[in-house]
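hey can u run this one w/ dihydroflavine-adenine dinucleotide bound, need the structure tokens asap thx
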Amino acid sequence: MLRTLLLQLSTRPALGRALDRIPVSKRLVRRFVAGERLEEAVEALARLEAAGCLTAVTYLGENVTTPERARAAADTYGALLDEIDRRGLHSTPSLKPTHLGLDLGDEVALKNIERVLERAGKTLVWLDMEGSAYTERTLQIYRRLRTRWSNVACVVQAYLHRSERDLRSLIPGGVTVRLCKGAYHEPPDRAYPRKDDVDRNYARLGGMLLSPDAQRAGTYPAFATHDERLQRVLVEEARNLGIPADRFELQMLYGIRSELHRTLVDAGVRLRVLVPFGEDWYGYFVRRLAERPANLLFLAKHLARR
Ligand code: FDA
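ok here u go:
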């Protein structure tokens, strides 16, 4: 119930402006968000790269309502890629279609995403997956982009009932795909309500991505989860199937279970850490709180002490 409430709050940005005035919550925000400025994100990327991690980077924002803001998001990704190149780093952008204008129409988002892809050159660009109202349109945009760009990757969410069908149609295309559990509030006719079922489906879909057919097609899976058990199961499965270590990766979010980085890197696993930054952190931050009630208790305890 708490998760549902938080996910509903994640769409109320006015609360974000209020939270911003509470210093302790700002400290909690900084646990999950590298900073508001691009330079702070690039510093975090450099630190992670120095520690042997691969990285991805998200400029936070979603559901923009004007073409100017959508274009400005694409421009910021351009500036970010310039700074990454200038610093000799190798990060890959991960962007939200509604930040690039999906609510203003598929063509608006497509045009802005293509500007990022063009600037990225050979660097991969991930299209994040948002709430289920956008799943079909995001996959359609992804398919259109794939006919022109080889440097685009997609995301599939294990909590959605439709994801097995989506993977069956994506896999023969030799896609690069991130598998995550799913972070939005979804009705039971679209998503498994129980965590156990989501975890089971994650393992099953992960197995599909590692299957000999998928590997022959050139599929490159990225397992985005902090769930140690699933990480272990999928890494072992890949090794048992003889899949080389550079043909799959694990992905984690900045600030979550960072103590696992060293062990995974030392074990020869490709680990990519996604670093978010930007002023529009509210929706992202509340989704992180919703994933773990202990985060909210931490916030509540400090507020009560004030
Ligand atoms: P689970 O929720 O089972 O957590 C496992 C353990 O991880 C917990 O026991 C806890 O220790 C730790 N943990 C997890 N979340 C935490 C938190 N917020 N704070 C502190 N500890 C936490 N979703 C989506 O819908 N679309 C997308 O495009 C993406 N993209 C994406 C990229 C990357 C790189 C990652 C890692 C995740 C996403 N997600 C996402 C988010 C994803 O769907 C999911 O909500 C979170 O990863 C949490 O689920 P876990 O798989 O980590 O497992």
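The domain at 34-280 is CATH 3.20.20.220 (TIM Barrel). anyway lmk if its weird
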